[in-house]
Design a protein that fits this description.
Blueprint lengths: L4 E4 L9 H10 L4 E7 L11 H8 L5 E7 L4 H10 L3 E5 L7 H10 L3 E6 L20 E5 L15 H10 L4 E5 L7 H7 L3 E4 L1 H4 L4 H17 L2
Parallel strand pairs: 1-8, 2-3, 3-4, 4-5, 5-6, 6-7, 7-8
Bound molecules: 5-O-phosphono-D-xylulose (5SP).
Keywords: Carbohydrate metabolism, Cobalt, Isomerase, Manganese, Metal-binding, Zinc
Catalytic activity: D-ribulose 5-phosphate = D-xylulose 5-phosphate
Organism: Salvia divinorum
Length: 225
């Protein structure tokens, strides 16, 4: 059985108070903190880079689950490793030629390698990255177009999750975009175990309650499968 992980997306936090927002999420029961790294090129939004991860790392021991929405992920491995990132998830759409080198470099810097795919990318494109000597250790299935928080969950992406769960029973499968109490059961029953949630957690009067609902949904789905 794969461990459920709830990862609030810090994109929805108050960036001016990132350290205290991170601490608040951990106090509310978050397992990981999801960090959205956007370069203004791969996606039409610009967020944070390694210096912010380095600053945050001074204030928390939490697992920093970094999602690199960038055109040249290889350029970010060294700085993110140094900054204290825990997971480094890159996009398959920009890594077809160098994913082996990328995975090796991520691991050598002590980070967990993951691969992500946009809604329009067929799931088969990540299969090669899950085979062989140096596989990725997580697949992040985007359930919205990457770039912005607060978008509507795309239920049709659950086919990708089902295919991955069937083929790789012990793989960490993460979903990201539009997840909250009204959509979690679809993702959990499809087989996702790592759940990223931004606006549904940060916008709730009781974030701890939402985090526990998300966690329980994954647990229940696993117990009944
Ligand atoms: O990567 C992204 C957006 O590109 C996400 O991490 C969102 O930030 C999730 O936010 P919600 O859809 O949960 O509000």
């Amino acid at each position: 059985m794969v461990q459920p992980k709830i990862a609030p997306s810090m994109l929805s936090s108050d960036f001016a108070n990132l350290a205290s927002e991170a601490e608040r999420m951990i106090r509310c029961g978050a397992d990981w903190l999801h960090m959205d790294i956007m370069d203004g090129h791969f996606v039409p939004n610009l967020t944070i880079g390694a210096p912010v991860i380095e600053s945050l790392r001074k204030h928390t021991q939490a697992y920093l689950d970094c999602h690199l929405m960038v055109t040249n992920p290889i350029d970010y491995v060294e700085p993110f490793g140094k900054a204290g990132a825990s997971g480094f998830t890159f996009h398959v759409e920009v890594s077809k030629d160098n994913w082996q080198e990328l995975v090796q470099k991520i691991k050598s810097k002590g980070m967990k390698p993951g691969v992500s795919l946009k809604p329009g990318t067929p799931v088969e494109e990540v299969f090669p990255l899950l085979e062989g000597e140096n596989p990725v250790e997580m697949v992040l299935v985007m359930t919205v177009e990457p770039g912005f928080g607060g978008q509507k969950f795309m239920p049709e992406m659950m086919d990708k999750v089902r295919v991955l769960r069937k083929k790789y029973p012990s793989l960490d499968i993460e979903v990201d975009g539009g997840l909250g109490p009204s959509t979690i059961d679809l993702a959990a029953s499809a087989g996702a175990n790592c759940i990223v949630a931004g606006s549904s957690v940060f916008g709730a009067p009781d974030p701890a309650h939402v985090i526990s609902l998300l966690y329980k949904s994954v647990e229940n789905a696993q117990n009944s499968s």
